## 1
Amino acid sequence: MTITSPSADLGARGREWLPEARRIVVKVGSSSLTTIRGGISEQSLAALVNTLAERANAGTEIVLVSSGAIAAGLAPLGLAKRPRDLATQQAAASVGQGLLMARYTQAFGAHGVTVSQVLLTADDLVRRTQYKNAHRALEKLLHLGVVPVVNENDTVATHEIRFGDNDRLAALVAHLVHADALVLLSDVDSVYTGPPSAGGVRIPQVRGTDDLDGVVIGSTGAAGVGTGGMATKVEAASIAASSGIPALVTSTAAAHHALAGEDVGTWFSVSGRRKPVRLLWLAHLAATRGTLTLDDGAVRAVAQRHRSLLPAGITAVTGDFEAGDPVEIADQAGKVVARGLVNFSADELPGMLGRSTKELGRELGPEYERVVVHTDDLVIV
């Protein structure tokens, strides 16, 4: 197999190009790895590992984003179904993550492939220092021939800093490692126009959001142990494709055929340029903590001219947030025009409204002579 580096025309390529991809992020869901009673399905995990190890040994760099930690912890804890409260989810994840990694270590090891565990929270992909550390660690692991097994750090993640599901996490990890493609695996073989049992037909390719108009997207799989379902896979694939990374949605059973470039699943063609990963999170996933209301001039500067937000253009502040938190930016009518990472807390901002940065610097100190939201930390919606 010949592995090629990504080129400028990746957006025009289809699934038949996957065998040539240099670096692929593969995400597998809980329903594909665990039994309906909880616990890990040894047969399903081994079949997936056989496919991924074969590609890894052929020279492809693989990052595996794997759900299943919470589901794997259910049976050992005597839980009949996935818990709803965060504390019990964290406990199940703490028990199940070790079990899941032990199985991966054994299964990949049989092929001579070393794996590592990488647990992430949203902060690790948004805050600059953590982002650089995560990128550096993953790059080194891949350089050493290791298959990183990535999961959300469910044991410590709170509702405020959760990705929500590993499909979205996989889309961001694909950007973090500059992957050539994202492959999302579940127990459904493709995206359909509706339930196949009701006459829905497979959608082989999605070139843009218009191709999904009127499509009825399904929810969590039959095992009931996941959090996503087809809706989040479509969202994750769309996030990746709209920012420069093609994506394939198919079943875990079809993984071998998918990575061989065969006509399986639904291929999401590239429809936009690559963006910084924190801006993808901000645009699609971040739970905003407040709202900054702007005057008309500031709205034009931010939304049309893509300028940083200055305190002089802010007329009102609502919410409870700290410096670095995501906030919505709205016009006088309340329409949200952007989202951004704010540089001041909700307690600091009211006394700054309508004032110039120079005036604030003279009165309050040089740390106040800066923008409220920098253009690099801002997305237009």
## 2
Amino acid sequence: MVLGGGEADGTGCALSGRDAAMDAALGALYGGSAAGGRRRTTGERSAGLGGSAPQVARWLGDIRTYFPGPVVQVMQRDAIERLGLSALLLEPEMLEAVEPDVHLVGTLLSLNKAMPETTRETARAVVRTVVGRLEKRLATRTRATLTGALDRSARISRPRHHDIDWNRTIRANLKNYLPEYRTVVPERLIGYGRASRSVKKEVVLCIDQSGSMAASVVYASVFGAVLASMHSIATRLVVFDTAVVDLTDQIDDPVDVLFGTQLGGGTDINRALAYCQSKITRPADTVVVLISDLYEGGIRNEMLKRVAAMKAAGVEFVALLALSDEGAPAYDREHAAALGALGAPAFACTPDLFPEVMAAALEKRPLPVP
């Protein structure tokens, strides 16, 4: 790309072999063609993928040959956005050629309703591959972190020796410090019981399925399945746009959850929170996680009143502008500020931070806001 090509190349050097092939793959995507493969004037580099499925398939194979996986995923995403190749993903042979990742899953879900039956099983296989990778990466740490939080939330006043919370016990007995012995005499022990198999906490995941939230929907579905696998947490999963759909009966299988969503459309956060509020039976033991960019199409004041009512009843309310690796998206800053004023700060959260956020919410301590 630095050398350029044709008349743009003033170095007098030419690429050959593997370098020329890499340059051609990059030029096809980034060479300056408009979507649809605009014809170039004389002297411009030859580039563009046009609308030819065989040509795209060859290009997908080339980039997987010449570039590492993360770069391939970026190039695929750019090709879909810059060259309008979404329609080609409805062909099974295209899906078999791509490198599966979270963004590809989001694109497939947005095409779900238009997907022919011949492509559907291939698409599910692609989605299942991505979900499997995410579960392998996130599940163990999430369960360990939340199990610890549940243990610590079950405080007892007469703990057994191995259940003593030494940090809290020492802080509570600092007045009994004996300088001559350099020790603390613990008059009062603070401990925590071990989480049993009974339900200790309830979690409601309320997920905005508007088109901009695609990656968040994928990650939230995976975390929903992980939470549902923990006996001490009763998990409900709700997705919404202008309508509200409860997918709790499918929560064990994130692939079923994802194909039960419909990315795109409007947003009615107030209606979604009203539904979630109606399902809360133990407010003091409930965490509600709203995952949304907060662009509300419903009744703003009612939405804020519902959040305030839930918090007043003892519900821990968490507002995530995104659950993805990409940082904060565009979001409604006025609504985010209003939630913050209610004691529910709105912030973007990476998948790696999410277990810590949930642990803090379960223990009713300040959230680790980035």
## 3
Amino acid sequence: MTNILDKIVANKRIEVEQQKKEVSIDQLLKQIANVDRKQGLFKQSLINSSTGIIAEFKRRSPSRGWIFENAKIEEVVPLYSNGGASAISVLTDTEFFGGTFADLTLASSLTKTPLLRKDFMVDEYQFYQAAAMGASAVLLIASSLTIQETKQFAIKAKELGLDVLLEVHNEKELRHINEYVDVVGVNNRNLGTFVTDIQASFDLVDKIPDEFVKISESGISSPQTVIDLRQVGYRGFLMGENFMKTDNPGKALANFIQELS
């Protein structure tokens, strides 16, 4: 049976082949040369941050459907920055998450907070896109890549000045960690079933080498959970639905951070 991740990745491969026909790597390189790189580095921002909250801009998800269908980057991202986000994750997948390339490009013009391009990376071409859109970091999902692909993609990301967030879900996927990775994230949501269990982060934290910045992703809704995860060694906490399901995601973030202090 095809799981959700397999379906997303298969669709992504088709999309990328079409995108290559529309915009060449040479065109992307020209765009990259003109990008105003005012964003700080993703990893360093997490190290420096007192909260480590990575606030996500996400309109929908395969598990929940629409969360905030009419959410606008210009209304959310500046408030995320002002509210204390250490980084901002922007979904650029349209089919399953309701995101667009324009979302990330606009976000990069509105904030100095580091931006993560959140998408399903299946081709080196996508890293040129990310750099051209003004991203500070990219996501590599271990469960959708071979160990060789993970390293190849991480090297390409570094060549283009992008930090690398490697996402794992179980101990077996820790084999994907390599010296080109900056941040290791434990996704508490199984991307095959979309079931969420925060215990995944507690189970894996000691198995991730300490030279990598560690973050916990998905299913975090309580300030106490962030405090507990920080105590065991996590420096970052990727949160989207908890803020996006409200009328004012930026205010929800600011209130959450206030409860942490």
## 4
Amino acid sequence: MNHPDIVIIGGGMAGASLGAELAAHAHVVVLEMEDRAGYHATGRSVAFWEETYGGPVVQPLTTASGPMLSAPDPEFHDGSFLSPRGTLHIGRPGDEPLRDGFLTAFAGRVDLQPVDPATLVPGLRPGWTLGVMEASCQDIDVAALHQSYLRKLKRLGGEVRLATRLEAARREEGGWRIETRDGAIHCGLLVNAAGAWADDVAMACGVAPVGIVPLRRTVVQIDVPDLPSPDLPLIMDMQARFYFKPEGRNRIWLTPHDEEPSPPCDAAPEELAVAEAVARFEEAVDWRIGGIAHKWAGLRSFAPDRAPVYGFDPTAPGFFWFAGQGGFGIQTAPAAALLGAAMITGATPPATIASVDSRAYCPDRFR
């Protein structure tokens, strides 16, 4: 059927989650340009839920998503998507303003406790004297969450069309005409959930971009034969130069926290970024490295103010933005999808997202 009510461009976590929440109200078709959904940013996540990640504007979405991730409807998923981890934010002398600003920004919102990091991380090198513990941080089973949304979408009558790229689209009476290599699709509402390609999709539809920029993030999986414990917290540098966390008994996921502008693409790691990641890791701990097991890169896409972009474009009727989630699109997915669905249908937002103010994310802030 090429006359659905809603077409969503992008089958990653954003498109799958929003599509699943809309499918009970309308016939939804998700167009995914790759041979499988979630190939890009969704499939390359370091996979944690951390309330402070993304800053105070993102935190309400993350916090609201927590209960839905930890205790989902059994029909949606049997069991929790989360498992305990915790985050230890570490710093050195001179980082006190960063620590104090961090504590102030989330006071009354997130439970943050100043600690001595050396007591929590065996092998932490001298000089790392500042610590803040964020105990609520959890690991996320990203693949299970994404697949649960895709199953819900299909169970409610929605479709996912793989290897189907939007070539162009234009407004017509009653909605949009979308051109693909497999023919035209007519719909009433077009949703841009295209991640790194969000501005390109907008321009292909004759809609002005909002300035979403893809930034490359490198991740390295290293062997650490003498890892003190697989249950250590996620460790984040207060200066945002690295973070790492155990992944299994003797492996670490590590990133130099790089953000290199990139065109939308199948991102690949740069050797310099890999070397920087390892060097920064060795600055932090004295753990012996056995070798690099794997390395990859993904694109994190940010609007100019680094807040997500959710809402109807004020200059293009029937065009809805659901993009710019940066590196926090996984951990905010449940709340963001409910918020986006309420904005589209006009329904009263459910109580689970009552604390989220959608005005902070509307695209008209760029117009």
